[in-house]
């Protein structure tokens, strides 16, 4: 065991953990005041639900065994997951810490998709959905990419979760939103508290540095590279977003700034430890611009209600970042990978990234539909018109965030 590597990952684990409470605030500020507590509770409940699911089954299905499609039960209930190192994962960091680090990834993935169904999904059915989604969607995809499964064997790479976290959660959120249907028109109102969203956005931004820097599992040049690339791409995501926002609206908004930041972060995540600083600039700007177009134009054109734009930011950003990795990855930057298409590596790096993206999208769509349909046979997923009108905070929690409505 290496003390510096262990301390780095301990710190990064806590940083990634704080992203979920940050997302609770970020999403909470974007909804109506009568739904802020329910929206925040979706993320906060994910911490408890995912932790138990991950400990019992999720971690083993994600990282146990050497099967191509799904892990085995060798780590069921954290069997043999202890302070010792596991050389298949890291020679310097305790295995239990790697498990905990990956737990925070799964937690934020579940929290992300809650944004698509905000203000219209019943609370208890959604908790059930979380459990089944971790077991039947997240864990298989994590095994494919990081647990030695078929995507890993194909040669596709995902540094910190472009496919595993962002595409799976963004696409699944969109499917669930389409199945639930749009919110009532009178409930589709502007954000009630952008300062709360700002505080949440700052926590997410801060935590994301642990998300990417910790994924090297070691205090080395790759962890520093990914840290710098995360700084660069997040700011370039803002730049890409606000350029289009100013051209089309002649204004630069706070919510646009935060959205651009998130777009840049998502886009660099699969590539952070594999690309140069210049490439991270390009990926950040392209990510910000693409997510802006999807959220402000394509979403309106196709008329779907992705309430808090989980798909528009995370799904789209993850797709761009994953494919962009195949374009911009460099052997000179990270000796463990081959060059991408733009650096003389041929088309194969892009091809395998596209395969990984398409497979993750297709699997997430099918499994999310099946899970939601199964739950819907036993209980109603969608809130009633009366519940939506009254406010979900009162209906599901018997509480109010404020003594007035905004």
TrEMBL record:
The keyword Phosphoprotein does not apply. Residues 8-402 form the Ammonium transporter AmtB-like domain. Keywords: Ammonia transport, Membrane, Transmembrane, Transmembrane helix, Transport. SUPFAM superfamilies: Ammonium transporter (SSF111352). One of its GO terms (cellular component) is plasma membrane. Its main location: membrane. The keyword RNA-binding does not apply. One of its GO terms (molecular function) is ammonium channel activity. InterPro entries: Ammonium/urea_transptr, Ammonium_transpt, Ammonium_transpt_CS, NH4_transpt_AmtB-like_dom. It is found in: Cell membrane; Membrane. It comes from the Bacteria. Belongs to the ammonia transporter channel (TC 1.A.11.2) family. This is Ammonium transporter. It comes from Staphylococcus massiliensis S46. The lineage of its organism: Bacteria, Bacillati, Bacillota, Bacilli, Bacillales.
